[in-house]
Amino acid sequence: MKFEWRKQEKELYLPKTKPTEIVVPEQKFYTLSGAGDPNGEPFSQEVSALYAMSYSIRMLSKKGLAGKEPFEYTVYPMEGIWTLSDEAVAEGRAFNKADLVYKIMIRQPDFVTEALALANLEQVSKKKPNPNNQNITFERIEDGKSLQMLHLGSYDDEAKTFEVMERYCEEHQLHRTTFAHREIYLSDPRKVVPEKMKTVLRYFVE
């Protein structure tokens, strides 16, 4: 049976259009850190690098070459943890995408070990050269207690959803543990019009 995160992990990836509290366990990711406006070719190349690594792992698994029985699954969606540069925050600047600091990532199945992830990184780098490959790392990340909500629409309209989440935090005595937040991209912006895009927005809270 093919493992599909949309069906087996709905709680994590398909929240409602209202704030929901959740505890997110440790997960494994290929990650890539960067800064600046994501609307451009450099960011697109970073995304391409992560997908190349992730689809290679999927193929190894499907063929039974990942040290286990053949296992088929749907590649997890692109995610990103976003914040602003220290300078932008200290100076209280108006929001500018040029001030963004991010870590984008794609989750990997639990069976992926660090050794497998690094060997795959080396192999794919030879077959599909990308200057960003050298900056990809394999990490374990645990979001822990979080507040998340499904955002419908353009990335540029996320502020409206964040306002709803902020009100929920105030009403339920929740405090964000960091200014950063996570985004999970359920829609492909190349195929879906902005007003119909779906993005999970997540705060880390206590």
Automatic annotation (TrEMBL):
Gene3D superfamilies: Regulatory factor, effector binding domain (3.20.80.10). This is GyrI-like small molecule binding domain-containing protein. It comes from the Bacteria. InterPro entries: GyrI-like (IPR029442), GyrI-like_CCH_Lin2189-like (IPR008319), Reg_factor_effector_dom_sf (IPR011256). It holds the Pfam family GyrI-like. Residues 18-199 form the GyrI-like small molecule binding domain.
